[in-house]
Design brief:
The two termini are 34 Å apart. Helix content is 46%, strand content 6%. The model is unreliable at 1-23 (pLDDT under 50). It has one domain (12-400): 3-Layer(aba) Sandwich (Rossmann fold). By secondary structure, the protein is α/β, with parallel strands linked by helices. A 5-stranded parallel β-sheet has the order 3-4-2-5-7, sandwiched between helices. A two-stranded antiparallel sheet has the order 1-6. Residues 1-38 are annotated as: Disordered. It comes from Pseudooceanicola marinus. Keywords: Transferase.
């Protein structure tokens, strides 16, 4: 496959990968307040699942760069736990290494694509009702190199180390909840767009979602770490097909297909106004709870990052979407999924050849019944932000047929 590099790098939902870049003058940083998002100072962060080598690589040079702005307690606790994670990883290789080497990922996975906050989690959860699928769990992605040894210990302790819900919405977090493998890539030390949440170092070459921008050695390292994690997940679920959800995979289709040429893809899109509002809130919540610094970028910087990331994300997707065979791809709307989830899921199965969906109906009914009390975040949008969405994301409105509230027309129309 031949690919062209875009020369762009997109920050995760406007997280600090690009925060503040392009501004006329630096904006004052704001203090982090993790308690505002349900996080106490003693609650574990993503980085607590890293091994010593991966943590050392992530934190190298940051002590000097961020001196005076680091959360020293978090820094010390991650360092201490990384040693234990390294020990558990070594034991896992010793005990399970031969079996892992014989494990094959077959058939190729099904991927849920879509920008952050487009409904990917809801779609992933619905598809996970099918017992033919297996998805990485919260426990597995938060401890990607140690879960084989610690899963029986940490699962019953989940209420002590997992927050009740995610920082950005009302989705519950449980040890066995289906979770995105991008988190596992991050914690396993792979190149990931989410690395920016730790120290906000834009110089870090591995802080990107579009890994086509990386040197070949880093791309190979990404593939190796991703394959190792997925193999461990498959090892615990023999005979089941992997169902993976990571928004960042949407902008690295060429690399995904390089690993899994027969993969299937379900792409979900959503009203761009809702995506914008939800991503700005997510940028604040994830940065406040996961950063290892005492301060974080101003809201306006996070907002700027959201808009840059969205455009770069979809440029990368459009660059490679033609690589997917027609019968292996389908696109749905979040609004349709909310209105009639069972009909949309059946349509997905028919479109990409996943077989009969009828057996799913009882499990879907149980999930939908349990979700009846779930409240979707509601937002009121500032008119200036609304116009910015319409101006900067005009191509998305056209591509997916969403109507603009103001009726404003861009210059290229």
């Amino acid at each position: 496959m031949k690919h062209e590099r875009t020369g762009r790098r997109a920050g995760h939902q406007g997280l600090p990968a690009e925060a503040g870049q392009g501004a006329a003058r630096p904006r004052p940083r704001q203090p982090t307040r993790p308690r505002d998002f349900g996080y106490s100072p003693l609650m574990p962060r993503l980085w607590h699942g890293m091994t010593w080598g991966d943590w050392r690589a992530l934190s190298r040079g940051q002590w000097a760069r961020c001196r005076g702005d680091l959360r020293l307690g978090l820094y010390a606790s991650i360092t201490a736990l990384s040693l234990g994670n390294s020990l558990m990883h070594g034991l896992a290789q010793l005990i399970h290494g031969r079996a892992l080497a014989r494990t094959e990922i077959s058939p190729d996975p099904v991927f849920v694509l879509g920008y952050w906050r487009s409904g990917t989690t809801w779609l992933h959860q619905l598809l996970s009702c099918d017992p033919r699928f297996c998805s990485p769990t919260s426990l597995q992605v938060f401890m990607p190199k140690s879960f084989l040894m610690l899963r029986h210990v940490m699962r019953p302790l989940a209420p002590l180390w997992l927050p009740g819900r995610r920082p950005m919405d009302n989705v519950a977090l449980e040890a066995d909840s289906s979770e995105e493998d991008e988190v596992a890539l991050l914690v396993a030390g792979a190149p990931s767009v989410m690395r920016g949440m730790a120290f906000e170092d834009p110089r870090a070459p591995a802080m990107t979602g579009d890994i086509m921008d990386l040197p070949e050695a880093l791309r190979a390292d990404w593939h190796r770490r991703w394959r190792e994690f997925l193999t461990a997940v498959q090892y615990l679920a023999p005979g089941r097909q992997l169902l993976l959800k990571s928004p960042a995979h949407t902008m690295r289709l060429a690399e995904v297909l390089r690993a899994f040429p027969q993969a299937r893809f379900v792409h979900i899109v959503r009203d761009p106004y809702e995506i914008a509002q939800s991503n700005i809130l997510t940028a604040e919540g994830m940065t406040a709870t996961q950063t290892l610094r005492r301060t974080m970028p101003a809201r306006a910087d996070l907002e700027d990052g959201v808009f840059r990331a969205f455009r770069a994300f979809h440029e990368a997707f459009e660059r490679d979407r033609a690589l997917i065979p027609e019968r292996h791809y389908t696109c749905i709307r979040y609004e349709d999924l909310r209105r009639d989830p069972k009909a949309v899921i059946k349509g997905v199965y028919d479109a990409i050849g996943l077989g009969e969906a009828d057996a799913l109906e009882p499990a879907l009914d149980r999930m939908l019944s349990a979700r009846k009390g779930y409240r979707v975040n509601e937002f009121s949008m500032d008119p200036a932000l609304e116009r910015r969405v319409e101006r900067d994301w005009a191509a998305y409105f056209r591509r997916y047929g969403y109507s603009r509230r103001s009726g404003w027309i861009t210059e290229d129309e």
